[in-house]
Design brief:
3 domains; four-stranded antiparallel beta sheet; 16 strands; single chain; 3 helices; Immunoglobulin-like; mainly beta; 269 residues
Length: 269
């Protein structure tokens, strides 16, 4: 009888001991790992069954451990799981209010950096033309630029063409400087050496945009200022026989063209 009780005690003890085993192999710990580290990638967990006990630890510098670790090169483009998605509009401050940008949105660059950028399909080429009669000649001004204007990549061109001349004009007409302004603010400027030597000749000038933008998007009502010089035969008197006397005179002048529509500048940086 004592033997039967002792045998029963051993069976119960064995049952209790076996029932306390948490695991036999590491795969037995998967459910506990999911419970303790919900949302973690399995690649970012060190799971081991040691002495029938599950030992579970998270792995550092691993995409999927719910920590955005910049030191490991993680960001919104390389590890959206931990850092979130690279998306959304930028912010523009106008007065005391903050607005969403109209054109710039966050996206991933070729270098996997989350940056403000513009969809090229949203950019349109604007071309404008105007004839202007000046003192001794008539010119045609063609302006071309992007709308919106990306200050990192877009270009502003002014093409000036000689269309007609007066008799007293001595060719050529020289374009010396071209700039874009808004009031007293200089938007961009370039020294030019354009030469209009005959009717139909033209000079196409690229004007770099150099002003510092305070916001990532800004509208400006701008004007184009063209500086030029030329010579004329100016009558200064008459000879004794009544024929006129002329001398050459150098004339320096400028023309300002105002644009009816505002230019929209964007700065992805």
């Amino acid at each position: 009888m004592k033997f039967n009780y002792f045998f029963l005690f051993l069976v119960c003890l064995l049952f209790l001991v076996s029932g306390c085993k948490e695991c036999e192999v590491s795969s037995d710990c998967s459910s506990k790992a999911r419970e303790l580290y919900s949302g973690y990638s399995s690649n970012c967990l060190d799971i081991e069954c040691a002495d029938n006990v599950c030992e579970i630890n998270s792995i550092s510098n691993c995409c999927g451990n719910k920590r955005c670790e910049e030191g490991a090169g993680e960001n919104k483009c390389t590890c959206t799981t931990d850092c979130g998605k690279c998306e959304g509009k930028g912010e523009v401050q106008i007065g005391s209010r903050t607005y969403e940008s109209q054109y710039l949105e966050y996206g991933c660059s070729e270098g996997n950096e989350c940056e403000l950028m513009i969809d090229d399909s949203l950019i349109n080429q604007v071309s404008l033309s105007e004839d202007k009669q000046l003192s001794y000649f008539t010119i045609e001004i063609k302006s071309s630029y992007d709308y919106p204007f990306n200050i990192d990549e877009s270009s502003f061109y002014a093409e000036i063409k000689l269309k007609d001349t007066e008799n007293d004009l001595i060719l050529p007409v020289s374009i010396t400087n071209v700039k874009i302004i808004e009031g007293e603010l200089l938007i961009g400027e370039t020294s030019a050496d354009g030469t209009l030597g005959y009717i139909g000749s033209s000079s196409k000038i690229r004007i770099p945009i150099t002003f510092g933008m305070k916001e990532i998007e800004e509208e400006k009502r701008v004007s184009l200022v063209i500086d030029y010089m030329y010579k004329i035969n100016q009558r200064i008197g008459r000879n004794s026989d009544g024929t006129p006397i002329y001398e050459e005179k150098v004339v320096r002048d400028s023309y300002t063209k105002s644009y009816g529509s505002k230019l929209f500048f964007v700065n992805p940086d």
